[in-house]
Amino acid sequence: ELSAEETTAARTVGNREIALAPTSEPGKFLILIRNRPPTSGIFSRALLIPALLLAVGCALLAFLLGSRIVRPLQSLTDWLPNLKTPGSPESPALSSDIRDRKDEIGKLAHSLVETRAELQQEIERREKSERLAALGRVATSLAHEVKNPAAAIRMHADLLASGEPRKDQEESITLISEEVDQVSDIVNQWLFVAKSRPSQMREHDLAKLTRKVIQRVQPLGDHADVDISHELSPAPVQADSQRIEQVIRNLVINAIQAMPNGGTVQVNTKIDKDRAVLLISDNGPGFSQQALEHFGEAFYSEKEGGMGIGLTLAKEVTEAHEGTICADNPESGGARVTLSFPLNS
Question: Distance (Å, rounded) from C-alpha 137 to C-alpha 130?
C-alpha cells in the first residue's frame, strides 16, 4: 500500500528519475522513467573553456576601447577649452601620443592643433593692426603739429647760414639744422609706418641710394669710432627713394649704436638671380634670441630709450616694395640684416 504522497512524488534511483501516477483502477499505477541529463564531466568542461575565452575576449575588447578610443577622446574633450586662449602660457600642449596617431582621432587632434595655431596668428595680426591703427592716428596729428614748425626753424637756420655768421654762431646754426633734421626724420618714421605703401615708385639704383645714406651718417660713425666700409654693386630696383633711404639709414644707425666701443659696419649690395640684395652687418654683440623672435614688431625695443618703430618701419616699407627682410647672427660674430627686392628688369 502506497500513500497518496508517495504515489504522486518523483524520486531518483541511480541515474534515472521515476514518477508514479495512479490510474482509474485501484492498486494500479503508471510508472514514468527517464534518464537524468549529465551535469558534470566532459560536456560541462567543454562548455567552460569557451565561456572563459569569451569572458577574456570581452575584457580585452573593453580595455582596448578604453585605452585607444575613450581615453583619447576624453583627453581631446578636456583640451578643447585651450582653443579660447591659444597665446596663454598656462595653456598645455596636446599630448604627442594623440597627435602622432594615424587614425581618425590623430587627424582630429592634428586639425585642432592647426586651428589653434591659426587662431594665434589671427590674434597677433589683429593686435598688430590695432597698434598700427593707433600709430597712424598719432602720426597724422604729429605731421601737422611738428613738421610745419620744424620746417620754419630749418628755413631760418638756412637764412642765418647764408649770411656771414660769427664763428661762435656757426656751430649753433649747424646744431639747429641737425636737430631739425632729426625731428623731421622721427616724424617721417611714424608716417612711413602708419602708411607704408610707397607713393612715388621710380627706377633707382639701390647702390646709389645706399651710398647717399652712408655719406650722411658717416659723421655719426666717426664720432662713435665706427668704420663704415662698403662694396656697392649696381642693382636697379623700383622704389620710393625717400622711404628706402629711411630704411637704410635706420639699419646703419642701429648697427653703429650696437657698438658703443667702436667697430666696423659692412654694407654690401649685389644681384642674386632676379633679386637686388642689401646686406648690413656689424661686429657687435649680435641680436639676442628674444630680439630675433620679435624682429620688426611694433613698439618692441631692447635699446634704452628706443621707441621700437625703426625695425617696424624697415619691415613695413620693405614688404610694401614686395621685398623681404630678415635678421640673423652669422657664425663669424656680430649681427646681420638682409634685405631683398625684386630686380627691375
Answer: 11
Backbone torsion region of residue 176, taken as left when φ is above 0, otherwise alpha when ψ lies between -120 and 50, otherwise beta: alpha
Residues 177, 155 contacting (CB under 8 angstroms): no
pTM above 0.90, yes or no: no
E-strand ranges in the chain read: 10-13, 16-22, 29-35, 202-205, 226-232, 236-239, 263-272, 275-282, 324-328, 335-342
**pLDDT tens digits, 265-286:** 999 999 988 899 999 999 988 8
Pure H helices in 88-166:
96-99, 104-142, 148-162
Instruction: Look at strands 263-272 and 226-232 and give their pairing.
Output: parallel
Q: What are phi and psi of 65, to 5 degrees?
A: -60, -40
Q: What is the CA angle 263-266-269, rounded to 5?
A: 170
Q: Which residues of 167-186 are buried (b: 16+ CB within 10 A; e: fewer)?
A: eeeeeebeebbeebeebbeb
- pLDDT tens column, 165-216: 666 667 777 777 777 777 777 676 666 666 656 667 889 999 999 999 998 8
CA 87 vs CA 116, 209, 328: distances in Å: 9, 41, 25
Q: What is the pLDDT of residue 60?
A: 79
| 101, three cell numbers | 596617431
CA distance 301 to 311: 9
d(CA 145, CA 140): 9
Q: Tell me the pLDDT tens digit for each residue of 221-239.
A: 888 899 999 999 999 999 9
Cell numbers representing residue 344 in the block: 627691375
- State the pLDDT at residue 275: 92
Question: Do 161 and 176 contact (CB within 8 A), yes or no?
Answer: no
Query: Quick check: helix, strand or coil at residue 267?
Result: strand
**Backbone φ and ψ of 231, nearest 5°:** -135, 100
24 phi/psi in degrees, rounded to 5: -75, -20
Question: What percent of the chain clears pLDDT 90, i.e. is strictly above it?
Answer: 18
Closest CA to 251 of 188, 305, 313: 313
CA-wise closest residue to 39 among 63, 68, 15? 15
